[in-house]
Amino acid sequence: MLKEDLLQVYADCFRKNWELPAISEYFGSETLTYCDLARNIARTHMFFKAVGIKPGDKVALLGKNHIRWVVTYMATLTYGAVIVPILNDFSPQDAMHIVNHSDSVILFVDEHIWEHLEFEKLDKVRIAMSLDNGQILAEAPSNSSRAEKALKVIGTSFKKKYPNGYNPEDVQYSYFSPDSLAEINYTSGTTGFSKGVMLTLNNLAGNVLFGVRSKLHWPGSRCLSFLPLAHAYGCAFDMLTPLAAGSHVWLFGKTPAPKLLVKALMDVKPHLILCVPLVLEKIYRNQLLPIISKPSMRRLLALPIINKRIYAKIRKKLVDAFGGEFEQVIAGGAPLNHEVEEFLRKIKFPFTVGYGMTECGPLISYTYWRDFIPGSAGRTLPGMMYSKVLSDNEAFIPGEICVKGENVMKGYYKNPQATAEVLDADGWLHTGDMGTISDAGTIFIKGRYKTMILSSNGQNIYPEEIEAKLNNMPYVAESLVVERGKKLVALVYPDYEAMDKARLTHEMMPKVMEKVREELNRIVAPYERIDEIQLRAHEFEKTPKKSIKRFLYS
Fold first, then answer.
1. CB neighbour list of residue 533: distance below 8 Å, 6 or more residues apart
2. Nearest one of 413, 415, 407 to 361, comparing CA atoms
3. Which residues have CB under 8 Å from 313's CB, separation 6+?
4. Which entry of 86, 161, 298, 344 is 20 to 30 Å from 543 by CA?
């Protein structure tokens, strides 16, 4: 258990950086300093107390990234209540299921989402509040209009409590055990599949303190938050860590369309960029690959002195596109395509790959970009997390990766069976990922245990590794490798934009894909060769976190 009190870390940071900007909305004019943030948190605490919210009560939070979302989260955390952040990509039915399953007693929600929810079906919710304007959307009769009355007097009550204004010395948060439940983060919304990951104050502190000590953020540094804050990755390192370090968080607040995101990066000039691998892979495939694939460019790149100059120009262009002032780009949430990774290293682009899962809030491993080992998922957090592989030789023979330490969750909310399936008696979390670990603790991931295919000659086949190569082939947008009978089949959703540019019709695609299959089979191991490619007319169905729902296609 860590010695540091996470809530005291925030209190100290708020007082120390009182006049510095804390949060801004990129698409808007609103900015909160750390003074403003602390004051808003204090007002929310008064509201919670007035309406009967107690430490340990569940507070559901459903909306896009914006200032009121952040204030609500931080106010709930520092009050000692349990925050339940819900991805706004979940369907209304799934969102209501999560609210009910979590036993939430109050709901903060964007109004455009609220329109599709049914208050009378939210079992324990006494109050629904608008994240757009802070007004009451609905209040249960049993609550005796406490929320309505509290809103009317909150301003007067606040001034009465702080007659000299709200000052740094007024920032005082109660102590709660580090093992106290702080957050329930749902990995799925569907009834019967919901797993609410219970994260404690200590779990969150493990992530935050590592981020602060590693100087991912620092007082006055800038951060552009475009990952969903309801997801553990964005939440930990685009909000919780920067707000513990005195950084300035800019909330993107919209779907990160490429043109809008590039402009925001140029305007904000963040010092750290968090993204999912898909962002880097799209840049490589759509912008860089067409340039370096030209015959004339290939000839130039074959010349040692000239290729360095070309790579330097490509690196500068890419660095400028990300704002030009960042220390590094950290890709997480999924494995990075090996070809993309190899090229980025070749041009010396400052990126690294982290590994984690919601069950660890999320971080398991990370390495600073200059020390990053190609093909790895970073080094197990030293002194914070421990890792092992269930195999006869964890450095060479892949096995299931297990982790233990400060960041490992308490379990799944109201689901002891699912908890027992992943957390063993010694506290090791079984990740479900297959891989190896070096003596220094560097993790190399092969694929998911559940997706591994055992070939007829006893070889372990990891579909993700084949898909990574296939997705770099011409006219392939995304793919899924499955076993059908004794055949290895690749399901492919074509790149229709590339097809149109090449004037390819649907009738031509089977022959094109056969050439793709032959090319793929030349670069994979003999036991990984694809027997057949089947084309799909529509994209694969995905989770709100944009992972393909593999179980639908197995």
1. 489, 490, 491, 492, 513, 514, 516, 517
2. 407
3. none
4. 344
Task: Of 494, 492, 490, give the one whose Cα is nearest residue 463.
Answer: 490
Q: Determine the pLDDT at residue 454.
A: 82
Alpha-carbon distance of 27 to 133, in angstroms, equals: 16
Structure token pair of residue 316: 């500068």
DSSP summary character for residue 134: S
Q: What is the pLDDT of residue 553?
A: 87
What are the pLDDT digits (tens) for 216-270? 999 999 999 999 999 999 999 999 999 999 999 999 999 888 889 999 999 999 9
Low-confidence ranges of the chain (pLDDT < 70): 188-194, 544-545
Q: Which residues of 7-44 are buried (b: 16+ CB within 10 A; e: fewer)?
A: bebbbebbbebbebbbbbbbeeeeebbbbbbbbbbbbb
State the maximum Cα–Cα separation within the chain, in Å, rounded to a whole number: 78
pTM (predicted TM-score): 0.90
- Tell me 222's DSSP state: E
Residues 6+ apart with CB under 8 A from 65: 225, 226, 228, 229, 234, 251, 252, 253
Distance CA 448, CA 464 (A): 8
139 forms bridges with which residues in the sheet? Answer: 127
CA-to-CA distance for 25 and 36, rounded, in angstroms? 14
| pLDDT, position 281 | 86
H-assigned helices in 138-293: 146-161, 201-213, 232-235, 241-245, 258-268, 277-283, 289-292
Looking at residue 393, its amino acid is: N
- Torsion angle in degrees (nearest 10) through CA of 73, 76, 78, 80: -140
How many contiguous H segments (helices) and E segments (strands) does the chain have?
19, 26
Query: What's the mean pLDDT when you consider all of the chain?
Result: 94
The string of DSSP letters for 363-396 reads EEE---GGGPPTT---BB-TTTEEEEEESS-TTT
pLDDT at position 384 is 96
Rounded distance between C-alpha atoms, residue 398 and residue 378, angstroms: 16
- For 318-349, the pLDDT digits (tens) are 999 999 999 999 998 778 888 899 999 999 99
Say which DSSP state 506 is in.
G
Task: State the DSSP H helix or E strand holding residue 106, giving kind and residue range, or none if neither.
Answer: strand 104-109
State residue 545's pLDDT score. 64
**Cα-based distances in Å from 189 to 199, 214, 288:** 18, 34, 37
Tell me the C-alpha distance between 345 and 223, whole Å.
24
Q: How, if at all, do strands 351-353 and 31-33 pair?
A: unpaired
Contact 447, 463 (CB under 8 A): yes
What's the number of CA atoms in the CB half-sphere (13 Å) around residue 296?
A: 1
Q: Which two tokens stand for residue 158?
A: 């606040």
Find the helix or strand (DSSP H, E) in which 341 lies. Answer: helix 338-346
pLDDT of residue 514: 96
Q: How many CA atoms within 13 Å lie on the side-chain side of 524?
A: 24
Q: Say if strands 136-139 and 181-186 run parallel, antiparallel, or are unpaired.
A: unpaired
